[in-house]
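Hi, can you check this record?
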Amino acid sequence: MVIIAKKKIDGLWKELMSERPGFLVVLEGIDGSGKSTQARLLARKLRKMGLPVTVLREPTRGKWGRIIRARALQETALNPQEELELFLRDRQDNVRRHLVPALNQGKIVILDRYYFSTMAYQGARGIDPEYIRRQNEAFAPRPDAVFILHLSPAEGLARIHQRKKKDILFEQEKYLKKVEQIFRKIRGRRIYHLEASQSRERINELILRRLIFLLKKKNFLQLDSSRI
């Protein structure tokens, strides 16, 4: 019975994904992995191709996102469940106000962090990552493509050491090792893992190549990919 139910759910999800007008791309990884850089490069290239692109990020700059950012600068951490609740509230607000409207308008949405980060970061604080995934997928649109960039925590921290504001809560090497381990275990439909130690140009090339294929497959893109 469980297997049958899962097949039905997977079939319904595929049907909904094919009917949804927009396209959701998610970039994930620890701080310093280059996901924000890739989001900018990807948006620039897709816009040059004449495609409608919206770039979003989490935590957001909304009410709940500002609380998360403020708490990340403090040494006194929230307990894991309180953290999770804040991220869920922030994401629910982002989904309602920005993400779903953009997708319904037929846009390509590039999202810098999504619930996979919550799985990794709050999972490293002791909450079951699959429980976090279920909580999020109850309301959050599933991505059309997820690119997880992998980098050693030591190298990631070295890349961001000049930041004026330090996320005391999340930017600790021992903690980030657990985060990175969870990121590497995340699997699923159209989830792709890339090593972030490569040049940003090479990473962008790999992401764009896969993305062009998926956009064509969804009949979202009808042009010669040599234009990229």
